[in-house]
Amino acid sequence: MIEAVATEHIRHAERPLLDAGAPLMAHVAFAVAQRVRHELSARTGEVGGRRVVVLVGSGNNGGDGLFTAAHLARAGVRTLAVTVAPKVHAEGLEAARRAGVVVVSSASSARDSQDALSPGAAAREALAADVVVDAMLGIGAQGALRGAGGAIVRAVNRQRPRRGGPFVVAIDVPSGIGVDDGTVPGPVLRADLTLACGSPAPGLLLPPAAHLAQDVDVIDTGLDLSGATSKVLRLEDADVATLWPRALPEHDKYRRGVVGVVAGTRAYPGAAVLATGAAVRSGAGMVRHVGADDVTRAVLAAHPEVVHGTGRVQAWVVGPGLDTEDAAQLRQVDVALAEAGLGPGAYFSGAGVWGDGGSDGIVPVVVDAGALSRLPERCAPWIVLTPHAGELARLLTERGVAVDREQVESAPAEHAATAQRLTGATVLLKGATTVVVGPGQVLSQAEAPAWLATAGAGDVLAGLLGTLLAGRSREAVQHPDLVARLAALAALVHGRAATEANPGGPVSASMVVEALPRTIARLLAD
Ligand SMILES: NC(=O)C1=CN([C@@H]2O[C@H](COP(=O)(O)OP(=O)(O)OC[C@H]3O[C@@H](n4cnc5c(N)ncnc54)[C@H](O)[C@@H]3O)[C@@H](O)[C@H]2O)[C@H](O)CC1
Ligand SMILES: [K+]
Q: Which atom of ligand 1 is nearest to the CA of 27?
């Protein structure tokens, strides 16, 4: 599991080390320089004589960059440091100059000096370099990258080729991302490699900023973060075996978990086929389908092991391909929501339902697509909403927070957290990076290949999550913390199955369903 702790905790953990005189910046700079040398030699076959441009900001992130530049110059790299602020880290500047780094300034105050370089010219230098080191802003960033740094990044972004071009290494974070919320308030230089100092900042895991920091490595600076409470988590493949509902020899099909799926209509029978198929193929003990007869016929033709009609379940999946005009199906959605411990319009206070759930028939429910409009005023945390950005915008607007899809997409974690707060449910917001927010928890998963943005993929995710919740139904109700983790687990496996279905190429939702059993087996064996 990757843990990104809020930057206030990083600051807090740095303090005693810095007070004791620990050479954290020297350590960071050494590690970054090593990595840049490695990349140069891997990419060009040599280190000496290659060109590196270091973009240097006013704070300690810039200091890291200047000391990195000094190491590189001593290793024979042709190193240019471009400062983007009138004042930069003084000792770092001195070390860089002493080591033979060429230092120029793009800050507007330097315009008439001999060492001035316009942002446009600095951008050309950067584009012609083998490696660019982004050391303009770290966790001290406030808002969009301003001044010369912003101008350089805008110019580079206009001309940077999709492939080829310089390899960009960001120190700590790509400069100018929202370090705690993952927003992208202004120009940011997409990093090919991000070397986080001490601990990754939450913004490195949260979309949309996470897409600008694909490959994240952590430089261990010895921070003690054990007391950190505010975190973003990301499950890794190694976590799958720990969280997955165990298939034990003594478990019959009921104890393995029965998933009830209320999905599909005559107009959209495919959603029911995909959701039930995903539930079956991810190892449910039994899957029941509740829907119109001809929809169930389509389901049975594809998955003969599915059982038609209602009965006892350990988790419900409601909503994929739902017909909001179909009164019978909507009643069934309401029944499922009532089995989560709350009927429509009921108020969930927290007390009373917690703790003794599961034992008296309370079950988790995945609420997708059309069923999102049937939610009670307050939900238990074992109700998992699985909206995409547009659906989340609608849900929030209905509850008095008027936002549109673009606003949700520009700050997914914040809006998912608002929906969590307003409903009480666990919220899984689908996207290229999926964000899950439960009470006091945030997780983000980025396994989905771009090809997975395809019709029916959400139905597969809902069915898969239904199996996970059914397999650990009792625990999910008794320990609601588990619910967000299972939701993140579903997103991880969904993404991995898509890759396994056709690595690097197009996938259909049915192909993902097909790939689930072998993907799960591989992940459980890892
Ligand atoms: N975690 C560790 O173990 C270590 C981290 N290190 C590095 O230190 C930075 C944080 O340094 P700090 O000086 O506090 O902040 P920044 O360098 O990010 O920048 C602050 C600086 O920038 C100006 N500024 C703020 N916002 C903007 C903006 N939007 N546009 C332009 N300028 C802006 C502000 O005025 C300040 O002057 C951390 O990220 C690591 O890289 C240490 O090396 C020690 C080990
Ligand atoms: K940076």
A: 45
